[in-house]
Amino acid sequence: MRARREGRALGGCRPATEERNQEAHQAALLRAPAFGVTLEAGCEKSLAELSRDLFSAGCKTRSGGCWTPEMVRRLRVRLKETKLALADVALEVGACA
User: Fold this and answer.
1) How far is Cα 49 from Cα 42, in angstroms, rounded to an integer?
2) Beta-carbon contacts of residue 41 (< 8 Å; ≥ 6 apart)
3) How far is CA 17 from CA 14, 24, 51, 54, 61, in A?
4) DSSP 55-76
5) Number of domains within the chain
6) Is residue 30 part of a domain?
7) Which domain holds residue 49?
8) How far is residue 29's CA from residue 68's CA, in Å, rounded to a whole number?
9) Spatial contact of 38 and 54, defined as CB atoms under 8 Å apart
10) Phi and psi (nearest 5°) for 36?
11) Between these two residues, 45 and 90, which has the higher pLDDT value?
12) Those residues with Cβ within 8 angstroms of residue 24's Cβ, 6 or more apart along the chain or in another chain
């Protein structure tokens, strides 16, 4: 607890900050469209099956393994967010033309 109060992290982990969270979120938004075809093709599959498909498509963890089902679920959410953001940009550009 003392290390936490003093702002140090235990076990070599850095404490999360809003800035790091935003950077990770932005990176995920950029990564999601790269695997959008695989995600959309597997919309009827379980998250575990989709994880294996993503692994085959080159989507791996930093250690080179498959993503967990929770990670796949979050990637699906990021893909939806990216599509909505792109649709908003298209609407704004269309309004200016």
Assistant:
1) 8
2) 53
3) 9, 11, 28, 29, 22
4) HHTT---TTS-PPPHHHHHHHH
5) 1
6) yes
7) 16-96
8) 18
9) yes
10) -60, -40
11) 45
12) none
Is 70 part of a structural domain of the chain?
yes
Q: Which two tokens stand for residue 3?
A: 């290390």
* C-alpha span between 50 and 40 (Å, rounded): 10
* Over residues 16-20, mean pLDDT: 78
Rounded distance between C-alpha atoms, residue 79 and residue 83, angstroms: 6
**pLDDT for residue 24 is more than 90:** no
37 is a domain residue? yes
Average pLDDT of the chain is 77
Q: What residue has token string 């950077």? A: 23
Q: Residue type at 12?
A: G
**Residue 10 within a domain:** no
Inform me whether the pLDDT recorded for 21 exceeds 80.
no
pLDDT score of 51? 92
Say how far apart CA 81 and CA 87 lie, in whole Å: 10
Residue type, 72: V
